[in-house]
Amino acid sequence: MILTIRISGQVEIPKEVTETLFRIKLRRKYSAVLLAPTKENLKLLKKIRSYVAYGTIDKETLVQLIKERGQPIKAGDKISAEKIVEGLAKKSLNDLGLKSFFRLHPPRGGIDSKKHFGTSSKAVLGDNKEKINDLVRRML
Prior knowledge:
The protein has helices at residues 15-23, 39-47, 59-69, 81-87, 132-139, and strands spanning 2-6, 31-35, 52-56, 102-103, 112-116, 123-127. It has 140 residues and is an alpha/beta fold.
């Protein structure tokens, strides 16, 4: 699974990019969604890479993310992170009883939100590959 986190706010973003972010439920700064690594989603990520951080999330980080930031659709429902992670291969988060997005905390230790990953030690925009797990842990 590919985790995508919106880094840029809403000011001075082209209308086409805003529409794309809205459709994949990245409507606020520091919100995150899980995307399947399909051809269409990879093209979409290429289009919005200057406004988001994305990468491949590992199972341990995904379990921790669901435990700490997963919100059930029905208020008061209990969630089992391990069962949800196992069911993600066949079903979506909505089908498993969770909201399809996660609200995250701004990263502890700070980020350089205007530079692409690899240009400096705190840059996060674009494809973070496996380093997205470190960023998510700082945002929980």
